[in-house]
């Protein structure tokens, strides 16, 4: 299971540390990317995510399974039929030169989980390549309740 984000919650939750004004445009681009990834699980359309993930993308699911770009895109269509709701919160974005770390937590309800849902904490690593931000790595972990 690969994590998802909620469009509305993500818009409200991107952290902007003091003195980070020089990263406003970068932060907006990364947040837009996280929102696009989230929205893809709602629509079941992986096309918007295809350009966000680097070709050498590497992810680790909450169960410890490693997956690449193709697996991430396939998961969007596979989980779409099962996803009822999803909600992200606590999103932060920090910059380290041409690298950015986005972190947050998702609550998702699927047909399998029922109304209780599950919580997943996640970290995405973004790198600016040729002037464009791409996700190169993601780690998802089930959060205790």
Question: Secondary-structure map with pairings?
Answer:
Elements: H1 7-13, H2 24-43, H3 47-50, E1 53-60, E2 66-68, H4 69-80, E3 83-96, E4 99-110, E5 118-129, E6 132-142
Parallel strand pairs: 1-6
Antiparallel strand pairs: 1-2, 3-4, 4-5, 5-6
Helix pairs in contact: 1-2, 2-4
Largest sheet properties: 6 strands, mixed
What is the CATH C level class, in words? Alpha Beta
Indicate the radius of gyration in whole angstroms: 14 Å
- Mean pLDDT, as a whole number? 82
Shape: globular
Q: SSE string, helix = H, strand = E?
A: HHHEEHEEEE
The N- and C-terminal alpha carbons lie at a distance of: 18 Å
Number of strands: 6
CATH architecture field: Roll
Residues in helix, %: 25-40%
3D structure, described in words:
The structure is a single chain. By secondary structure, this protein is an alpha+beta fold. The chain contains four helices and six strands. A hairpin with a 5-residue loop joins strand 1 and strand 2. The protein is globular. The chain starts with 6 loop residues before the first helix and ends with a strand.
Task: Record keyword descriptors for this entry.
single chain; 145 residues; alpha+beta; Nuclear Transport Factor 2, Chain: A; six-stranded mixed beta sheet; 4 helices; 6 strands; 30% helix; globular
């Amino acid at each position: 299971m690969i994590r998802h984000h909620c469009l509305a919650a993500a818009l409200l939750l991107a952290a902007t540390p003091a003195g980070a004004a020089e990263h406003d445009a970068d932060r907006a681009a990364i947040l837009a990317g996280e929102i696009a990834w989230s929205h893809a699980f709602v629509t079941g359309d992986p096309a918007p995510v295809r350009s966000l993930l680097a070709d050498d993308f590497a992810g680790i699911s909450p169960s410890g399974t490693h997956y690449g770009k193709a697996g991430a895109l396939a998961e969007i269509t596979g989980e779409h039929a099962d996803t009822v709701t999803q909600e992200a919160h606590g999103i932060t974005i920090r910059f380290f030169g041409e690298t950015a770390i986005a972190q947050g937590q998702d609550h998702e309800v699927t047909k399998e989980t029922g109304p209780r849902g599950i919580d997943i904490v996640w970290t995405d690593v973004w790198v600016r390549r040729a002037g464009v931000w791409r996700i190169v790595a993601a780690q998802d972990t089930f959060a205790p309740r």
